Structure formats: C-alpha cells, structure tokens
Amino acid sequence: MGVNEELAPSFTQKPTLRQEDDGNRLVFECQLVANPLPAITWFRGETKLVENDRTTMKMTELTPSKYLVVLELDDVIETDAGSYKVSAHNKLGEVAASINLNFSPTDEPKEK
C-alpha cells in the first residue's frame, strides 16, 4: 500500500465499547483505513450526534491512511441506550458499522 494510494474507507477494527470511570463514561472505538481523510459521522438511532459537554468525538492518525475513531459519552444515563452507528466517507466511498448499547436492569442489593 503506497503512501499516496487512494483508498475508500474500510474498517480494520469494528466498533468496540468499553466503560471507564466506574461506568460513568462509555468509549466507542474503531479503526479504519482511508485516503483521502474521511469525514466521520456518529449516530444514535437515526439521530446524528454532535459534540457537547457530554459527547466527544476524536480521530487520530495511527499510521499514514490508518485512523483510530473514538466517541466518548460522559455522565451516561439510561436514555443513552440504543444502536450507535459510525459512518466514514470520502470521495471514493462510504462505510458504516453499528454497535448496540444496552443497559441491564440495576442490580438491587440482595438481602442475606
């Protein structure tokens, strides 16, 4: 793969999900290759996500044409549950992948 070779976006790692800060922060991560630089869009359901005080989106170039794409949600609440989709596109094409965020019922303290 040449440095200047043009590439349609393609995932090298599908989205994964991890919790940080005792579950108060969720981090969605995926990796992709693309050249030129792709435009990244995140959705929850059909709603396009925008950055705000709870939502952070990052893209880091790991190697030429390979990127780490991250969505962070802070102060997670139950209404954050749902299907998340990340879309990447450049002039050569578009690719998308989804991951579901489900909350299990709150564990009640068990009496002994």
Automatic annotation (TrEMBL):
Instruction: Report the superkingdom from the record.
Output: Eukaryota
Q: Which residues form a coiled coil?
A: none
Q: Ranges for the Ig-like domain?
A: 9-102
The UniProt entry, under Pfam families, shows:
I-set
> Which keywords appear in this protein's UniProt record, sorted alphabetically?
Disulfide bond, Immunoglobulin domain, Signal
- Supply the Gene3D superfamilies for this chain: Immunoglobulins
The record's listing under SUPFAM superfamilies reads:
Immunoglobulin
The record ties this protein, via PANTHER family, to: CONTACTIN 5 (PTHR45080), IG-LIKE DOMAIN-CONTAINING PROTEIN (PTHR45080:SF8)
Q: What is this protein called?
A: Ig-like domain-containing protein
Say which species the protein is native to.
Answer: Daphnia pulex
